[in-house]
Specification:
- With 215 residues, the chain is an alpha+beta fold.
- The chain folds into two domains: 60 residues, Arc Repressor Mutant, subunit A, CATH 1.10.10; 127 residues, CBS-domain, CATH 3.10.580.
- The protein is built from nine helices and eight strands.
- The strands form three sheets. Strands 3-4-5-6 form a four-stranded mixed beta sheet. A two-stranded antiparallel ribbon has the order 1-2.
- Helix 5 links the parallel strand 3 and strand 4.
- The longest helix is centred in the first third of the chain and has 14 residues.
- The radius of gyration is 25 Å and the shape is elongated.
- The structure holds adenosine-5'-diphosphate.
- The site of adenosine-5'-diphosphate (ADP) has 15 residues, from strand 5 and helix 6.
Length: 215
């Protein structure tokens, strides 16, 4: 998709016509531009989907009065975690720090989610947690990861239905790189890790927005 915050000339003209004469039918807009209704259809679809125009059946097109930046803000606020979540990388709480380090390298992530024997979220281990553990005098082959991880209930997590913008605020405020995306387990006794949201996902969302054809 190609980003078009710059609408083309014809689209701008359509907006002007609807501003001045709305509600106005597609047929009437086409007449004013000396074009066929079919030629205008894609432009009208784009302008409606982007939120510049509103279409009501049997009445016609209205101008919504929203600017490009207002529409962009609305769109940013609507993005849900589910649209940008990645696969989580989880490690059992019985694993050693050494095994956790190997997983972090192999899976190429910066944050590991630690689960207990029931498969529920027990903690988080970040790069620096593992570095810190490696710098001490302890033997990383024998210390379990659950000794050094940040543990529940101090874990910040989110759900697929949450808004990505809220998560971005949380990451900044808590100064962390990522959050586990969870769902309640069937018997409600814990949280299952179903995804991962990191600063990288949010960067991807940002780039995708800039390439979105319809704002
Ligand atoms: P790093 O420490 O490698 O820079 P972070 O900034 O993400 O990575 O982590 C900082 C600290 O916060 C670490 O001790 C880590 O265990 C903890 N942490 C990371 N993510 C979370 C989270 N979602 N909830 C609670 N604590 C977290």
């Amino acid at each position: 998709m190609v980003y078009k915050i710059e609408l083309n000339k014809r689209q701008q003209k359509i907006i002007e016509i609807v501003k001045d004469h709305g509600p106005i039918t597609g047929e009437q807009i086409a007449d004013q531009l000396d074009l066929t209704r079919a030629t205008l259809r894609p432009d009208l679809a784009i302008l409606t989907m982007a939120g510049y125009l509103d279409a009501r059946p049997r009445v016609g097109y209205f101008y919504t009065g929203k600017t490009g930046s207002q529409l962009l803000t609305e769109k940013v606020k609507k993005i849900k975690v589910a649209e940008f979540t990645s696969m989580p990388v989880v490690v059992q709480d019985s694993a050693t720090v050494y095994e956790a380090i190997c997983t972090m390298f192999l899976e190429d992530v910066g944050t590991l989610f630690i689960i207990n024997k029931n498969g529920h979220l027990a903690g988080v281990a970040s790069r620096k947690d593992l570095l810190r553990a490696s710098m001490g005098k302890q033997e990383i082959n024998s210390i379990p990861i659950n000794i050094i991880m940040t543990r529940m209930p101090n874990i910040t997590y989110c759900y697929k239905e949450d808004f990505l913008l809220d998560i971005a605020h949380i990451l900044i405020e808590k100064q962390i790189d990522g959050l586990p995306v969870v769902k309640r387990s069937q018997n409600e006794s814990g949280l299952e890790v179903v995804g991962r949201i990191t600063k990288t996902n949010i960067t991807k969302a940002f780039v995708e927005l800039a390439h979105d054809e319809i704002l």
